[in-house]
Each structure stands twice: as C-alpha cells, then as structure tokens.
Amino acid sequence: MDAANPIDLEALRAEVQACRACPLCDGRIQTVFGDGNPAARVLVVGEAPGKNEDEQGIPFVGKAGQNLNRLLEIAGLEREDIFIANVLKCRPPGNRDPRPEEIQACAPFLRQQTRSINPEFIVTLGNFATKFILKTEVGITRLHGKLHQAGRFKVFPIYHPAAAIYDRSKMAALEDDFVTLGQLLGTVPQNPPAPAATEG
Ligand code: SF4
C-alpha cells in the first residue's frame, strides 16, 4: 500500500455498492465486496458470487462456504485469518462464466483491495482467478499446488472448491494443496509427527 495514499477498504466497499460499470449490475440483488481480516497475510480470490452470496452479500456462504472453511482448517487457518474476495463483485446470471469485458470492468476493485490488504500470499481458486492474477493462459491443472510470483506477492493456485462437487477426484488434490499452503505459511508442520514408538 502506498503510505501517502492509503486505500480505505470501507470507502472502496461503498464505491463497489454503487458500481454500474457492467451489465451484471442489472441482475444483482446486491454486490459482494469481500469479507475478512483487512490486514490478512492471505488474500483468497474466487471467481464470482453465486446465488447464496448474491442473497447474503458475503462470499463463500452456504455449502460452498462450509466446504471452504473445512479446507482452510486443513491449512491451519480460519476465516478470520484471511480476506476473501472474488474477481467479479456481482453474480453472473445462472452462474455462467465471467466474460472478459466484465472482468476488465471489475478488475480495478480487486487491484485496489489487494493494495489495501497488502497480503503476503494470494491464493487463487480456479481458472478465472488464477489466469487473472498470474496473467497467464496456462490452466489450473498445470499451475495448482505450486508457488508462483506476481510482483511482490506469492501466488498459490488451487482448484476451485466447487470443482470437487462435480468431480470428486479433485477433492484429494484440493486437500493436498491446502496442506501445502499451511506448510508454506508455517501453520501446518512440514512433516507429520512420527508415530509414537510402541513398547513390547
Ligand atoms: S461486476 Fe463489478 S464492474 Fe460489473 S457492475 Fe458489478 S461491481 Fe461493477
């Protein structure tokens, strides 16, 4: 964050609430700015709000939220430790994929959130967030679970937790990646403790 020009997250939230920069404003119940610790070490970036998020104004609620909370626990983290935001702040109709022009219109908000929070790690969930943050066309299948760098930020891509709902084989990869994230953060031991020796 530029000390001479700090970005006030609450002022930015109000700006997002009033935004009509792309057609998604017409279908939203409300904007979903983001939620969590404004000084978090870890910024988690998802794709876009779904139905529950649009109704409640908070990212990753309902079943998706429970799933994410369980995965965060594997990394030794709680929701209060992180800040979570999406690339898009308004719900695409029928949860369709974000369009390039919508991402372009909404991107300044995520950039300003990132500057304000100034995290050490950015965890990108799924293809859209990963491609946006790493400015790459390489897919999540090749990038997940490895540490990358974007400017001064360490970037750690992970499959979107929703992907595991439709493809159960992704759940093991998701869980492994959250263990690795915890190890990188120092919130999970590098090696599991050796089993206690049994006598006899
Ligand atoms: S998605 Fe982003 S750019 Fe589009 S209206 Fe919502 S806040 Fe504005």
Helix tally?
Answer: 8
Please state roughly what percent of the residues sit in beta strands, choosing from under 5%, 5-15%, 15-25%, 25-35%, 35-45% or over 45%: 5-15%
How does the helix and strand content classify structurally?
A: alpha/beta
How does the overall form come out from the CA principal axes? globular
* Major β-sheet strand ordering: 1-3-2-4-6-5
Helical content band? 40-55%
The total beta strand count reads: 6
CATH class group: Alpha Beta
At the fold tier of CATH, the topology name is: Uracil-DNA Glycosylase, subunit E
Name of the CATH superfamily: Uracil-DNA glycosylase-like domain
Distance between the termini: 60 Å
Largest β-sheet summary: 6 strands, mixed
Name the ligand types.
iron/sulfur cluster
CATH architecture: 3-Layer(aba) Sandwich
What's a quick, concise take on this entry?
This protein has helices at 9-17, 51-56, 62-74, 100-117, 126-134, 140-143, 163-166, 169-185; strands spanning 35-36, 42-46, 82-86, 121-125, 148-150, 153-158.
List its salient traits:
alpha/beta, 200 residues, 6 strands, six-stranded mixed β-sheet, single chain, Uracil-DNA Glycosylase, subunit E, binds iron/sulfur cluster
